[in-house]
């Protein structure tokens, strides 16, 4: 943790880090104040001294969990030698998100979107913002790949990006519900076939 941060910032970060996996596994509704105090060792008063309410904790935790996944993606994108490989990065990272030893409860965007739909507008808006950011990233990769001659001209970048995201998140959902992570292999094969269709 940065030595320059204030005690209040350090406490907020501590609460976020200690409750991140709990919120991602149990959801906003399923995570109680007792869960938060037990995970942090802090009193309710300490929690409410740093966050206005449980929803504010949940929003901060969602951003933290989302950034863990997206930072992993960014590191892999930076290493990918071609735009084709960059498009395939997301599927591989999400496969690891749900099947690795460090599985923290699956995709935070999917978990939050499903739970918050029509019930918690701030969380729903946060999930929508994350999805739109993901879509923009994919569209940028497709645009740059087209300019570099890797992809065919005239590709509908938004349609392709939405399709890739829907496939990956659908694979995450199917794998988590059934406990059979081979479904992600099928999804990755479909994503690859989709991307192969736009190669120049």
From TrEMBL:
Keywords: DNA-binding, Transcription, Transcription regulation. Residues 32-51 bind DNA. InterPro entries: Homeodomain-like_sf, HTH_TetR, Tet_transcr_reg_TetR-rel_C_sf, TetR_C. Residues 9-69 form the HTH tetR-type domain. The keyword DNA-binding applies. Pfam families: TetR_C_13 (PF16925), TetR_N (PF00440). PANTHER family: HTH-TYPE TRANSCRIPTIONAL REGULATOR LMRA, TRANSCRIPTIONAL REGULATORY PROTEIN. This is HTH tetR-type domain-containing protein. It comes from Dyadobacter beijingensis.
């Amino acid at each position: 943790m940065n030595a320059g941060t204030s005690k209040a910032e350090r406490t907020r970060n501590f609460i976020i880090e200690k409750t991140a996996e709990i919120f991602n596994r149990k959801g906003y509704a399923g995570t109680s104040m007792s869960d938060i105090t037990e995970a942090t060792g802090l009193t309710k008063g300490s929690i409410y001294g740093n966050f206005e309410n449980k929803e504010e904790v949940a929003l901060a935790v969602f951003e933290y969990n989302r950034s863990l996944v997206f930072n992993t993606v960014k590191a892999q994108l930076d290493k990918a030698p071609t735009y084709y490989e960059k498009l395939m990065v997301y599927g591989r990272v999400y496969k690891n998100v749900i099947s690795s030893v460090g599985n923290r409860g699956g995709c935070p965007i999917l978990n939050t979107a499903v739970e918050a739909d029509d019930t918690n507008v701030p969380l729903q808006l946060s999930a929508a913002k994350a999805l739109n950011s993901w879509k923009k990233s994919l569209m940028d990769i497709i645009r740059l790949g087209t300019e570099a001659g890797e992809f065919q001209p005239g590709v509908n970048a938004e349609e392709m990006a939405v399709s890739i995201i829907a496939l990956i998140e659908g694979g995450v959902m199917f794998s988590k519900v059934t406990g059979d992570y081979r479904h992600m292999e099928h999804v990755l094969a479909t994503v690859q076939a989709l991307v192969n269709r736009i190669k120049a």
